[in-house]
Fold this protein.
Amino acid sequence: MKIDNLVHDGVPRNHFASDNNSPAHPEVIEAVLSANQGHALAYGDDYFTERATAKLREVFGSSCEPFFLSTGTGANVLSMAALTRSHHAVICAENAHLNGAECGATEKFAGVKLLTVPTRTGRIGVEDIQALLGNSGDQHHVQPRVVSLTQATDFGLCYSVEELRRICDFAHENGLYVHMDGARLYTACAALGVSPGEMTRDTGLDVLSLGGTKLGLLGAEAVLFFRPELAADFAYIRKQGMQLASKMRFLAVQMEALFTNDLWLRLADHANAMARLLADELREIPGLEPTREVQTNMVYATIPPQAVEHIRQRYLFYVFDAKRWEVRLVTNHDTTEEDVRGFAEMARKTVGQ
């Protein structure tokens, strides 16, 4: 359902629609302005990109190979292009962005088939993967080559470190790579109390699409290879995929800022805390119970249609399932307690009218 207006009766609406809607964080803007001094070599051959690469290796391990890009779709799709050939397939959750929200980009640009797993949580397990390996070695069928996991899932739920290790071990035993869509990696790490390196490198992950835009960056993302040999051709794949930025320094310094002074953790902790507060407030409203577990920065709840339209006059959010009026509410790094309590108060006044 499309939301058209950001202002109602001259009053700006507050946002619970998407963490893509939030502004860039001031520390990120400061990093960009600091890099905006004089000339620097283009296409990543500059001091700023070198410094940011060193920062990512400090966080994720000295052997990782980072590449900066500008979109999450680009990061996901080009990761698949690096890991597969046209007779391969990628196993992922049915509701993963790779399948449901990339406009078929994986199929068009990576040229591979997606084998999807229905799941209410967005998580898939070893049993799901094993069920799709029955045609391995059969020339009449595509051959699974990659397992793609979303952390946190599009329902705000997390794989535990143990679950990730089990999946990676099983995948590698069966000749599969494991990719992670980490657009919301930070909120998952904050929720589980583990570092980004523990969540990725230490679990056996092969490739990570590292998000940034959803946590206060200006359209900066990255792809990290934990097995350097897999990155051998990625510079060419990135260029062909139209994701090689000329002024790379402005992408790189944003990612560096995110991992300086634990900015990522501060922002993710705050977004998660606001989601927990929102869920607690909604539980106090008779007949308005969150419909899914709240682990990170997303709250799902059913709200009567007449209340939805009224609340939307002041707060933006999406209806996830129109059949039962289940809505998705996303908190951000800049969501305030006033935003949360204001939404809850408006819901309290309108639900049941």
About this structure: The chain has two domains: 7-19+263-350, 26-258. The CA atoms of residues 126 and 167 lie 6 Å apart.
